[in-house]
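Quick one - inputs below.
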Amino acid sequence: MSSIRIWAASALAAALLVACGGSDPYVPGSGSPAGAPTTKATFTSLVSFGDSLSDVGTYAPATSLAGTGAAPYFGGKFTVNGATSTVWVENLASSLGLVVTPAEVGFGTSSVKCPAAANPALANTCTAYGQGGSRVTDPNGIGKAGGALTVPVATQIANHLARFGNFKSSDLIVIFGGNNDVFVQAGTLSAKAAQIQADAAAGKLTADQANGLLLNAQLEAQGELKKAALELAGYVKTQILAKGGKYVAVWNLPDSSQTPYGASLSAQGKQTLTGLVDIFNLWLREGLTDVPVQLVDANTNFKDAYANPAKYGFINNTVPACDAAKIQVITRGAVTDGSSLFCNGTAGAPYNGLRTGADLNTWQFADGVHPTPGGHKLIADEAVKVLRSYGWI
Amino acid sequence: MKTQLHLLALAAGLTFSVTAAQAQVNILKGGAILYETHSKTTGIKGIGIPAGADAKTGNATTLLLTYERLIDQNIGVELVIGIPPTIKAKATGTVAFLGDDILSAKNVAPTLLVNYHFGQAGDTLRPYLGAGINYTRFTGIKSKLAPSVDMSDSVGLAVQAGVDYAIDKQWGLYASIAKVQVKSDLVAVASTVLTTTIDFKPITYSIGVSYKF
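Output:
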């Protein structure tokens, strides 16, 4: 009898062991946001946070024709500028029947917040906070030393709360930030890598030591991007959702290596850039898992457009539409990198910086990384498409 | 498994006569075990990790304790437990430069076996064969590459072959060799997320002392 009990106990133990097994460890980044609204809204404002891709003219005074900071301006947006040139935030606003103006305009030590408020009817339109060079949290963005304001997304949100008090449930809030964190970390990493490779070539390091240091440098860059992405997700939760924001869409990052700038990099450089973008996106997704927002997959959308340009109406996605040599002449030698901030496409104008034969709509890129008006339309069209799919518009 | 169950139910039914005869039905064994892994992974995958990154687990020795309850003259149910040994892994493939100690974990691995003992009670040498189930849980997982590492539990089959040598009515020596299925999904979280599945393919060699009562 006792042996029957033992057998029964053993069988039970075995069954329990089987039941315990197979529990899969959690893989960060494998979840999704959840609980965002599914109902149609009547939006009264488009509130946009981000960087140069979402900049609707912060740095226009740097492109003053008179060189005094006063209008008229020949540039100001990171695209091919012109009377009808708009960036995706403006396109999205107009498709919602809204007007959006820069939250701040200026350069160097002089800037004005909400310049549109000079006209009281437009006082509530200055909700486009994106600035060229801005990062997620670090105020030292790209171009800061040269006078760019680079107010980080964290402060952009704080500025909105300072001016408007809270977010409203009729605000459409769009956040597209982190690209410059990737560029900064990629720059730091490639400088470290160059030093390590030089030391290895000079015999100061063994191959194993060099590989170890390279991996460490990469892990450090990844660590900074993990931090930035989780911070961005944190701001969405604690500074937007907790302060009245209801309709919130967060963009992940497109692969910066699939740009004319990226094409100029070595295979390893491209791979590094792709990896850093992917790390940011992984931790952004992780940070927003189960958070009631929508995560817009710009990465997949851009990849598809880069691989299938014709499908999106592009005939050229490898050459910048702006001519760096022309821009250098127009800026009297001040701008040598062909930045589209100083690129104007007005036919016949003396400040026209368009490359001969380039087109504003069928060429995707204005400079190394920024879209033409046609490229911005790609982002805006996708935005409208996904907002519809969420049932928001 | 089904036939085994039938066999055991049958065996259980036969035990009355044995227990009535006051035979020795309990065997305790203590010894040393070498846990030798022949691991294969699915490769270490993660953003920024070079293709061809891999790792290989090493061997470990520890102390072992088993208790076997004989159901009849030939069949016994054995539970094997041990002091959890530390298994280490070294980097291989394109990340071999990372060195010899990229992961360590203790494996808690109770195994429940049904043994068939050849010969008869009282024989000096009795070989045996066993089959059963192993449960392995990994604890104290550490990696210099990631602050947080999780490994899934493993449940798999175990088979063993051994021999008992009787010194007297109570005491004896034994040696056994076993093959166990141990597979675990690993997720290491640092600034990147590393995933792999490790098939440990362990073969264990144990030797020690037995006591019957």
